[in-house]
Amino acid sequence: MDDASLCQLIREALHSPQKAETLALAIDHLPEIKRYLDKGWQPYYDEALPMTERDVNRNINRFPQMYRLNLESVNCQNPSEAANVRRCFISWVMMILRRDCYDVKRRVNRPRIVSTSETIGGEDSLTIEETIADDLTLSGIKLILERERRSLARQMKCYIEEDPEMRLRNCHPRNNANLDCQLLSQKLLLEEPPLNPRQVARELTTPEKTIPEQTVYDRWRNYCLPLLRIIARELGYED
């Protein structure tokens, strides 16, 4: 599908559920999708794809908001405008697809879950379900909430790594482009184990320029954290 056709289909999908479904099904036919997918995720592609198609179908209205695109004013016959819409759409789909591949991988590799109908200690013993019956509803609610938090965490991780709109990379002091919010987020949140501001300051310090620990801390607290909160709300997090 060429840039102009994809651009037009995306615009129509914002107003038509049928077109949104057509757009979702077209994902598998976009050559960039498999080309950009890391080799480690490719074994999970076939199982993750229906999940990604469903998410794109349901959440297509979030796409232009995330990339600050006014698709009503985009000229899909203009090669540069159509190409930009395509780049943004591919980036958005890849973020969702990687998250879904991660879900599939985790499900495939997770330990066996014991059924609540299995007995504990022999035939005459209580089942697990009977044992925890009093707390079953509360536990179920907690489990659902925990899954939602984990889903958001995965989306945020993908967003930080991709930074599709360069909002994190472009948020830095005028006199130090290296102290950007993408780098700080990667260092302070995503590294295993995460670094602290003092360690980050040491890493960024060069013979020509010293980065104080307080500078890293202030930048993180006053600029990066508020920006990450905005992005989290855009991804569906509710305070």
How would you explain this protein's 3D organization?
- The radius of gyration is 22 Å and the shape is globular.
- It has 11 helices and no strands.
- It is an all-alpha fold and 239 residues long.
- The chain starts with a helix and ends in a 5-residue tail after the last helix.
- The longest helix has 31 residues, at 79-109.
- It folds into 2 domains: 3-110, no CATH class; 152-239, no CATH class.
Topology:
Elements: H1 3-13, H2 17-26, H3 31-36, H4 45-59, H5 62-66, H6 79-109, H7 128-131, H8 136-162, H9 181-190, H10 197-204, H11 213-234
Strand/helix succession: HHHHHHHHHHH
Per DSSP, the total helix count is 11
Largest sheet: none
The percent range for helix content is 55-70%
- Give the overall average pLDDT: 80
Radius of gyration: 22 Å
Shape: globular
Classify the beta-strand content into a percent band.
Answer: under 5%
C-alpha termini separation:
40 Å
Oligomer kind = single chain
Supply the number of structural domains. 2
